[in-house]
């Protein structure tokens, strides 16, 4: 519920401050489902809902309903307990305005005006609705989420890279075998060609030798194509691994 202390412009348009809604004042701090539904419905029709919920987050107001979010939802977004202490939760923040998932939230560092001890601050920005709020604990929770995702991505990329590497070496072994086969066939052809005997048997032997060499070259070609394909896939997996590792390191994390 809006505090009408005259310091915040947006509060003059608060739906809950209109005379016809003043009777709901206490309902904003009620814990019953019925009261929460009533107040949330009013909030969702309010023109200043975004300002209201951002104000609650930035002032760490963790009691009552603000901007259509009850205190549990506000604490979850801030990642704080009912005592206001920062907690690591399994359930990460969502956008308090449009309810976009954590994957849509990004942390930015902004410069602060006026000098003093603090020159920068962390803000969280929703990529879906552009709502931005300044909160260290929210930013930490969002970063923890993205770091967790990046670690999973690295593991997946490593697994895929390892699998493709073994497939690539299997392909190399097949090519080696087929090269041995081709060389044996060429040697065979050389031997039968060297036999200048003009008998029907010798002619037949030479025809067979030519066929065998042709076949062996085909096998080598096919397996080389297969090996090149595997090499390309292995390279793509390696690039992907580099990329996700870079993301992870840029977030200040190591494996
Ligand atoms: S969003 Fe809800 S709590 Fe905030 S000013 Fe509007 S009606 Fe009041
Ligand atoms: Zn949003």
Q: Please compute the radius of gyration using only Cα atoms.
A: 35 Å
Q: What is the number of strand segments? A: 3
The percent range for helix content is: 40-55%
Low-confidence stretches: 1-6
User: Any idea how many domains?
Assistant: 2
Q: Beta fraction of the residues? A: 5-15%
Structural class: mainly alpha
Total of helices: 5
Question: Mean pLDDT, nearest integer?
Answer: 87
> First CA to last CA: what distance?
45 Å
Order of helices and strands: HHHEEEHH
Fold topology:
Elements: H1 33-44, H2 49-58, H3 71-78, E1 105-111, E2 120-126, E3 132-134, H4 136-194, H5 200-250
Antiparallel strand pairs: 1-2, 2-3
Helix pairs in contact: 4-5
Iron/sulfur cluster (SF4) binds next to helix 1 and helix 2.
Q: Could you list some keywords that capture this structure?
A:
binds zinc ion, 3 strands, 255 residues, 55% helix, Helix Hairpins, binds iron/sulfur cluster, mainly alpha, disordered N terminus
Short summary of the structure?
By secondary structure, the chain is mainly alpha-helical.
Overall description:
By secondary structure, the chain is mainly α. The protein has a 3-stranded antiparallel β-sheet with strand order 1-2-3. The N terminus is likely disordered. The chain is built from 5 helices and 3 strands, in the order αααβββαα. Helices cover 55% and strands 7% of the residues. Helix 4 runs antiparallel to helix 5. Strand 1 and strand 2 form a beta hairpin. The longest helix is centred in the middle third of the chain and has 59 residues. It is rod-shaped. It binds iron/sulfur cluster and zinc ion.
